[in-house]
Amino acid sequence: MKIGIVCYPTFGGSGVVATELGMALANKGHEVHFITYNQPVRLDFLSHKLRFHQVLIEEYPLFEYQPYELALSSKMVEVVKKYDIEVLHVHYAIPHAYAAFMAKQMLKEKGIHIKVVTTLHGTDITLVGSHPTYKTAVEFSINNSDVVTAVSNNLKDTTNNLFTIDKEIQVVYNFIDTNKYDKAQGEDCKRGALAKPDERILTHISNFRPVKRVEDVVRIFNEVQKEIPSKLLLIGEGPDRSKAEKLARKLGVKQKIYFLGNSTEIDKILCYSDLFLLPSQTESFGLAALEAMAAKTAVISTNTGGLPEVNIHGKTGYLSNVGDYKDMAQNAISILREDAILEKFKLNAKKHTRKFSLQNILPVYEDIYQSCYESK
Ligand code: GMT
């Protein structure tokens, strides 16, 4: 099939899912066209089956805000016409679903009928989308998509609670290419470069936005390192990084924390991780936790949003209430204290990722595209 994918090209989870999906579809022989303002960060190859079309914004001094949706919908129309795209799959409702609706109307005028699949990822519903400034347009865009998917049962329910949605939302979980993580576990995994043999390695990956509660990550680590020799790796960049550094200095644990910045090689960094910390305020799924689990890492997280669908309490890790960093630290210590216990949690985490494997989820998206094609 010929599929157009619209996403944010950044390190955020929605962009990562969209990019991994596009690459996997192209590997299976579909023709995939990314339409976005930059080449997606995880898009590491291009071919005749996998192309990137840049949305360029004409800066005009009259505008305080440049009209990205207009440029995006015009680009969608251009690409659909030029490459006979059959389905547009937009990731993140704002403004992608809205721009797709406009593109669809413009194409209809020319006798071209395109189907729109919208995938809701979380903050487009929970934090931004339900705000009165956007709510009407987001609700309209969801209701006017041909197929709507959400990345967890929790996000589906939340969407139905916050908006008046007149169509069935299909749950399609985030997925993971387990082979990639298996490969990274090999001999290239140089754990010794970061920690002594008797030290445990804890990790957190995010965009360091307030919703991730990165200061709680530092607080949990501070408690853990009092009892267990350990190091903390912080991967990512964002507004709360300096707050985390300041707190680490105040608590006297800065020397044991490595701030590694953004990385496109998460699989290689996670290969030496023992425990992943995700104390988010809200998390519709928690792709970062799934990536850690695929790298055989146990997870300490909050019990918010879709996290209980990913991290199984007492099996792959533990869940605590938002903000209860002491409970999260106690749970972490109980896992890290003994090799045998740690190994059991790590193995359970790895096993649980089978449910979210690329092999299981990719055909679900293919069926969705096929049903769109057949109903054209
Ligand atoms: O978590 C972020 O800050 C990025 C955000 C995004 O929209 O790119 O991630 C959301 O989508 C991911 C992929 O579906 C989910 O795994 C994340 O849980 C979700 N983030 C939140 O709900 C906060």
TrEMBL record:
Gene3D superfamilies: Glycogen Phosphorylase B (3.40.50.2000)
Pfam family, one: Glycos_transf_1
UniProt domain Glycosyl transferase family: residue ranges: 195-352
One biological process term in Gene Ontology: bacillithiol biosynthetic process
Residue ranges of domain Glycosyltransferase subfamily 4-like N-terminal in the record: 11-179
GO-annotated molecular function: glycosyltransferase activity
NCBIfam families: thiol_BshA
Protein name: N-acetyl-alpha-D-glucosaminyl L-malate synthase BshA
